[in-house]
Amino acid sequence: MAMKKIQTPLTTEKVLGLKAGDTVYITGTIYGARDAAHQRMVETLNKEEKLPFDIKDAILYYVGPTPAKPGKPIGSAGPTTSGRMDDLTVPLLEQGLKGMIGKGLRNKMVIEEMKKHKAVYFAAIGGAGALIASTIRKAEVIAYEDLGPEAVQRLEVVDFPAVVVIDSEGNNLYETERRKYQR
């Protein structure tokens, strides 16, 4: 388990260098999107239309931020429970999505597709929305503005803190760490 700094885009080469348990600090562009935005993205793909941003080698952050205070790019920006996106994740992985940030477990189907498409799942610390927001330098709604806080946002981040919870080989901290404490 190591501490690593990552610059986006998150290429396959970078993904393969990440292992479950690594602490990472992400700098560059990530995209904020939650349930409703995921639904629209999948509907767009089902209609064989182009997504509103290039998802290849991208990182999606499952976030629905609070309104920004004066002079700030974003309000509190803590992670959303990732399992709510599980049924909508595979089509995005098939389009080249390489990283997801959220909190909580992922289902077996998503983990198998992460292995197939060489992607990684990061956990951000729930309850640390104000701290995480301090790493976001710019936030801009780029799609589905009518969804309010669930719209897709392009976020420019510097040293966004996260932990690799599930790596591209399917190693899963939620499983391995629990085993250490079971009798």
From TrEMBL:
EC number of the protein: 4.2.1.2
Protein name: Fumarate hydratase class I, anaerobic
SUPFAM superfamilies: FumA C-terminal domain-like
Record keyword Signal present: no
Pfam families: Fumerase_C (PF05683)
Residue span(s) of domain Fe-S hydro-lyase tartrate dehydratase beta-type catalytic: 6-176
Family to which this protein belongs: Belongs to the class-I fumarase family.
Gene Ontology molecular function terms on file: fumarate hydratase activity
Key words of the record: Lyase
Provenance organism: Thermotalea metallivorans
